[in-house]
Amino acid sequence: MNRTKIPWCDYTWSPIVGCSPASDGCANCYAASISKRFHLPWGSAHFMPERLGQPAKVRKPGRVFVCSMADFGHETVQPEWQCLVSRAMQKAPWPTYIVLTKRPGPWLRRILPSCWVGVTIESQAQSIRWNRLVAWAWPDAPVRFVSVEPMLGPVSFRDHGIKPDWIIAGPETGPKARPCNPEWIADLAADCYEMHIPFFDKREGGIRREFPTEGVTK
User: In order of start, what are the domains of the chain with their CATH numbers?
Assistant: First the structure.
């Protein structure tokens, strides 16, 4: 488990490594670049059971991004791996575990209902993933959220029946970064303010950097 500079979490934990593109947002995937640099597996998921005990060694509470180098819902992730990862989280319940996916589905019921679960989207067209997350995630999960990153177009959740408990947004970064109009982020932040949704702007000096609080409403 590693300390991270990702501004909305404290640690990353990768008991599963490897993924493949799901949509346009994956074109410049940071995890794929890191895997190539360090000769780690990519293209399909690989289980690393030796990492299952890592959360229990970190005694301080914090936010842990689970499978930051994979998609927990990738088609090559085996159900028994998901169950073992969930069991490891259950044995060390003091952190806040955050699971983020582009592939929401029935596998979400294999993870702890106490996890924060979210979907990554890059455009309005991909907001259908939020509907799928709502359909499959534990309805009593403390936080069900959306990460709009890289933001490649305007996005709004005004017309969605169930609103996210939290929205993160940010532009693509790196040498091949595609453009993100700052007004897209500002408009989404304004929507969140009106809908009383905590909003986290990933840019330095961003508009608002809020985390969900206890007792979020569904």
Answer: 2-201 (3.20.20)
